């Protein structure tokens, strides 16, 4: 979401979201990769974001994929 004009632009990007359907939930998380980003740190951050979302719908929110 955002706006774009000749003088300026501003955008908002959701880094955590969920799509709820009848009996299914799809969770999404994103990262901002910039010069100097460390892949392992970005992966750990994604794990934390997804764990936060999972904690809302699960008794066992730990993904255990990032070390």
Automatic annotation (TrEMBL):
An example Gene Ontology molecular-function term: isochorismate synthase activity
Any matching Pfam family: Chorismate_bind
SUPFAM superfamilies named among the record's database cross-references: ADC synthase
All residue ranges annotated as the Chorismate-utilising enzyme C-terminal domain in the record: 1-49
Keyword annotations from UniProtKB, A to Z: Isomerase
Coiled-coil boundaries: none
BP term (GO), one: menaquinone biosynthetic process
PANTHER family: ISOCHORISMATE SYNTHASE 2, CHLOROPLASTIC (PTHR47253:SF4), PTHR47253
Name of protein: Menaquinone-specific isochorismate synthase
């Amino acid at each position: 979401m955002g706006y774009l004009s000749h003088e300026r632009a501003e955008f908002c990007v959701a880094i955590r979201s969920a799509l709820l359907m009848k009996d299914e939930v799809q969770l999404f998380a994103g990262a901002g990769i910039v010069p100097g980003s460390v892949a392992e740190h970005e992966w750990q951050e994604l794990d934390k974001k997804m764990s936060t979302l999972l904690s809302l719908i699960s008794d066992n929110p730990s993904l255990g994929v990032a070390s």
